[in-house]
Amino acid sequence: MPSYTLTLACGCTVYVACHPMTGLAHTRVVDTPATDCRRRRHERGTRLWLWELLPDPAAPAHVSFSQSDMEQGRVTSLC
Ligand SMILES: [Zn+2]
Predict the structure, then answer these.
(1) Cα(78) to centroid of ligand 1, in Å?
(2) How remote is the CA of residue 46 from the centroid of ligand 1, in Å?
(3) Is residue 34 part of a domain?
(4) pLDDT at residue 4, rounded to an integer
(5) Is the pLDDT of residue 22 over 80?
(6) Which pLDDT belongs to residue 54?
(7) Is residue 31 part of a domain?
(8) How far is the CA of 10 from the centre of ligand 1 (A)?
């Protein structure tokens, strides 16, 4: 799986780098912070953990993870 970008619920874009051999995502950095994002961590170039990609509990969930995707560190379902 090639590297790809994700748009978070807050509007920030995250670059996800995948290992060329295993296809597993190993690095996630903020690519383009949303102008109205209030999360201090979301600055360009900031490395994020997988759970930091999850939306705020108070916010509507736009990103869903299945169990197998969590184990593989991948997100395949965005809606
Ligand atoms: Zn953000």
Answers:
(1) 17
(2) 11
(3) yes
(4) 92
(5) yes
(6) 76
(7) yes
(8) 5
Distance 66 CA to ligand 1 centre (A): 22
**Separation of alpha carbons 26 and 35, rounded Å:** 26
Is 17 among the domain residues?
yes
What domain range is 19 assigned to?
4-74
**20 CA to centre of ligand 1 in angstroms:** 27
CA angle (24 as vertex; 18, 29 as ends), nearest 5? 45
Q: Is 45 left (phi over 0), alpha (psi -120 to 50) or beta?
A: left
Q: Which residue has the higher pLDDT, 5 or 63?
A: 5
pLDDT digit string (tens) for 42-69? 999 999 988 888 766 665 555 555 666 5
Kindly state whether residue 79 falls inside one of the protein's structural domains: no
Whether 78 contacts 16, CB under 8 Å: no
What's the domain count of the chain? 1
Question: What is the distance between the alpha carbons of residues 24 and 33, in angstroms, rounded to a whole number?
Answer: 24
Residue 25, strand partner residues: 18
